């Protein structure tokens, strides 16, 4: 029985990983529509805003997956052994893909600007996640020991405190941006790591339908409040409402992560899980290529263009990742 539960849990986590990879692409397609005409009188903007808002759970779910998988493994090794066995690959991936995307970035950025972006951990808009993972992997054994020292209710208190502090920090950064180096970026996501570990072993007492409904309601609230704030805050409204530490984004992410752990639907998505990292790393380059041939979020109108472009980019990125995994020299890069 325990083996069957572990197998089902692993399968559900694979579904969540695949869905998150698709949602990342969806978010980046929608964001281009969003920034093109930032006006509450624009139907296109509202479509982009809704699509973006409802997919803001993508990165938090990736991080919660790390918490669900890494924290138990950290219990079986010393901190040094854990870091030695996992950190080198993340560092290698980050360095190599930073070099790959330098080819694209240096078409518009100077070398000195690109270097400053590297030091801040954002050489290309999606690679911040890889730089954040370096700190997260290095800290995972210590997060595990902290959580194990707390009882169940204290662990949730730690999660709440982490979200509160990171949320205040994120909100402050929207209005008073201060460039920082990348090694501390993972601190903003400690709450998600701890929440992922807790939710993987102690499910929320709600049905999958209730959790999915909650996710949609939280996402819709994000979209509506973004529209309400846009006239007064302009683009900063996106920073306020779309931030991964925003309380509505946090609750939406916890809801959808819990939904994936409970539902038996979407099982076919699990087959995409081995390609999810490759999709994440490759898709910005594919997005540029599709845009050059006239396929983007505006194709046939955003209501059709966003899902159409997402489908094309996910399929093309998955095909590239699949092909790379069959070449010995580059299979480790995705």
Characterize the structure shown:
This protein is an all-alpha fold. It has a domain at 1-34 and 268-334. Helix content is 74%, strand content 0%. The protein contains 13 helices and no strands. The chain has helices at 2-36, 43-53, 58-74, 79-105, 111-120, 128-148, 152-175, 190-201, 208-233, 236-242, 247-262, 276-292, 302-324. α1 (2-36) packs antiparallel against α11, α8 runs parallel beside α11 (247-262) and α9 runs antiparallel to α11. The two termini are 34 Å apart. Mean pLDDT is 93; it is low at 1-5.
Unreliable stretches: 1-5
Largest sheet: none
Tell me the distance between the termini: 34 Å
Shape: globular
Strand content: under 5%
Backbone CA Rg: 19 Å
Class by SSE composition: mainly alpha
Tell me the series of helices and strands, N- to C-terminal. Answer: HHHHHHHHHHHHH
Quick structural gist:
The chain has 334 residues and is mainly α.
Task: Offer a few descriptive terms.
334 residues, mainly alpha, 13 helices, globular
Question: What's the layout of helices and strands?
Answer:
Elements: H1 2-36, H2 43-53, H3 58-74, H4 79-105, H5 111-120, H6 128-148, H7 152-175, H8 190-201, H9 208-233, H10 236-242, H11 247-262, H12 276-292, H13 302-324
Helix pairs in contact: 1-2, 1-3, 1-11, 1-12, 1-13, 2-9, 3-6, 3-8, 3-11, 4-6, 7-8, 8-11, 9-10, 9-11, 12-13
């Amino acid at each position: 029985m325990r083996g069957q539960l572990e197998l089902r849990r692993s399968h559900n986590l694979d579904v969540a990983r695949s869905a998150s990879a698709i949602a990342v692409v969806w978010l980046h397609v929608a964001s281009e529509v969003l920034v093109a005409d930032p006006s509450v009188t624009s139907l296109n903007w509202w479509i982009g805003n809704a699509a973006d808002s409802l997919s803001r759970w993508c990165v938090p779910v990736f991080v919660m997956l790390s918490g669900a998988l890494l924290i138990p493994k950290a219990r079986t090794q010393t901190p040094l052994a854990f870091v030695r066995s996992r950190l080198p690959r993340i560092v290698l991936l980050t360095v190599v893909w930073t070099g790959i995307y330098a080819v694209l970035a240096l078409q518009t950025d100077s070398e000195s600007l690109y270097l400053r972006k590297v030091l801040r951990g954002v050489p290309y808009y999606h690679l911040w996640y890889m730089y954040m993972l370096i700190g997260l992997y290095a800290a995972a054994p210590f997060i595990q020991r902290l959580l194990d020292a707390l009882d169940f209710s204290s662990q949730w208190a730690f999660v709440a405190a982490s979200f509160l502090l990171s949320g205040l920090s994120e909100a402050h950064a929207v209005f008073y941006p201060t460039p920082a180096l990348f090694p501390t970026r993972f601190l903003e996501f400690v709450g998600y790591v701890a929440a992922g570990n807790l939710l993987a072993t102690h499910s929320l007492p709600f049905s999958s339908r209730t959790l999915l409904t909650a996710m949609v309601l939280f996402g819709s609230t994000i979209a509506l409040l973004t529209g309400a704030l846009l006239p007064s805050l302009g683009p900063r409204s996106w920073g306020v409402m779309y931030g991964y530490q925003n309380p509505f984004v946090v609750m939406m992410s916890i809801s959808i992560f819990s939904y994936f752990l409970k539902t038996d639907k979407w099982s076919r998505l699990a087959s995409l899980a081995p390609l999810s990292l490759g999709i994440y790393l490759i898709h910005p380059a594919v997005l540029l290529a599709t845009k050059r041939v006239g396929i983007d979020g505006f194709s046939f109108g955003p209501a059709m263009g966003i899902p159409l472009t997402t489908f094309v980019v996910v399929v093309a990125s998955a095909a590239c990742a699949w092909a790379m995994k069959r070449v010995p020299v580059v299979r480790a890069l995705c």
